[in-house]
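quick one
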Amino acid sequence: MKIAVLSRNPKLYSTRRLVEACEQRGHQVRVLDVLRCYMNITSHRPSIHYKGEVLEGFDAVIPRIGASVTFYGTAVLRQFEMMGVYPLNESVAITRARDKLRALQLLAREGIGLPVTGFAHKPDDVEDLIKEVGGAPAVIKLLEGTQGIGVVLAETQKAAESVIEAFMGLKANILVQEFIAEAGGADIRCFVIGEKVVAAMKRQGKEGEFRSNLHRGGEASIIRITPEERSTAVRAAKVMGLDVCGVDILRSNHGPVVMEVNSSPGLEGIETATGKDVAGMIVRYAEKRATETEGRRHRAPTRGRG
Ligand code: ADP
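structure w/ adenosine-5'-diphosphate:
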C-alpha cells in the first residue's frame, strides 16, 4: 500500500515508529507536513498539492495532527477523505475529540463515567458553579491547556473562587471538576485500536503532584486494567468515532471515569512502558480497514455520534 503520515516533524518518535512499521510491512510511506499541503477545493476531482507536486495514489492516511494545527490539519485530512483515501481517524472524529466540551457532552450522553464537571465562561455566581461539582477541593482547568498546564487543584472554596475569577479575567473557557483524590495522582492511559485496548499504562505523578503528566515528571509503568476499564475505554473511542486513540481514565470510588480522549496519542511512553509494538499494530489495522472499505469509501457514513 501507499501510506501518507501527516506529521509536522519526521523526527518525532511516533512519526519515526510509524514510518518504520510501514516499511517493515512492505508499504511505501511518505511523511507530509500538513501545513505545506495546499489544495483546490472547488474541483470535481479533489486533489492535494505538495511542494509543486500533485499527491496521488495513496491508499491510507495516518493523521498525527497536533492540537495547534487542528483546524487546517483536519481540512487537509478531509480532502484526502474526499479523494477516497482511507483515514485512520476521520477528520470529523478528530474535531469532535479536540473540542473538550463537545467530547464530554457526547460521552455523558452515552452514560460513560466522567468526573462531575461544570463549564463556564463568565459565571455570575461562582459559588454556585463550585457547589454544582460538589464543592472544594475542586480541579479547575483552562479549556485550551495541554500537558497539565492550566490545571489547578483548589483545596478550599476560597481558593477555587479566586482561581475561577483569575481565569475569568483572562476571558478563557474553563472547566470545573470534582477532584478524584482517590486516584492518588495517577491515571491510566488505555491505547485503543479498533475495538480493543491493545496496551495500557499507569502514569504516576511525582511526589506531591496530583497531575500525572509525563511532561511534568510523572512516571509510566505497565498495568493490568479491569474489564470495566477496558469496556469504558472502548466505548469512549466508539462514541468519538476514533479508530486509534488514547483514553485517559482515573480510578474513582464510583468506577472508572474518563478524563480525555486523545486522537493523536504518543507512542513513546506506551511502547516503552509496555514493550509492545503499538506502531506495528496501528499499521496492521490500517491495512485491514483500508482494504475493507475500498471502493465504498466515498459513501461511508461518518462514524461516531454528534
Ligand atoms: P491535560 O490535558 O493538560 O493533560 P488533564 O485534564 O489531563 O490536562 O489533567 C492533567 C492531569 O491532572 C491528569 O493526567 C490527572 O492526573 C490530573 N487530573 C486532572 N483532572 C483531575 C481530577 N478531576 N481529579 C484528579 N486528578 C485530575
